[in-house]
Write a structure and sequence with these properties.
eight-stranded antiparallel beta barrel; alpha+beta; Porin; globular; 138 residues
Length: 138
């Protein structure tokens, strides 16, 4: 019986270590300026909105700002906090009223955001912070 318990503990410890590594592995850096679009389908968002993120990453922690335009209520722009795990960037903004999950690939991020407007697709590209791009990526 003791051999069975010892074997279970050894295998269980190995599994816990793998989960810890998966949760803390950071394979991308999202620091910088990102510009793109949040797709819409009518309603309050019309046909969509432009989205700009200014991000600073330290380890797996990300802080910065989000700016949606047009932002008619001035409630969607402001501070942002998030994390990076592997190649996935997750964030919350607006006192938890908006959140997103984006997959990072080089200088592009794609995924979804959820807010008062519902769940919408997002597409972003890293840009030069001194000049906004003419149009968001498609």
């Amino acid at each position: 019986m003791w051999a069975f318990v010892a074997t279970a503990l050894v295998f269980g410890a190995g599994c816990a270590k793998q989960d810890w590594i998966d949760r803390t592995l950071v394979t991308v850096d999202v620091t910088g300026s990102w510009f793109g679009s949040v797709s819409g389908s009518g309603g309050a968002m019309g046909s969509g909105m432009n989205l700009r993120l200014e991000l600073e990453q330290k380890g797996s922690t990300v802080k910065g700002t989000i700016q949606l335009t047009p932002d008619q209520s001035n409630k969607s722009s402001g501070p942002i906090e998030g994390t990076v795990a592997g190649d996935v960037f997750r964030f919350r903004a607006g006192r938890g009223q908006m959140e997103g999950e984006l997959t990072v690939g080089g200088d592009e991020m794609n995924g979804e955001m959820t807010g008062s407007y519902g769940r919408r697709p997002v597409s972003l590209r890293r840009v030069d912070p001194s000049s906004p791009p003419a149009s968001p990526p498609r």
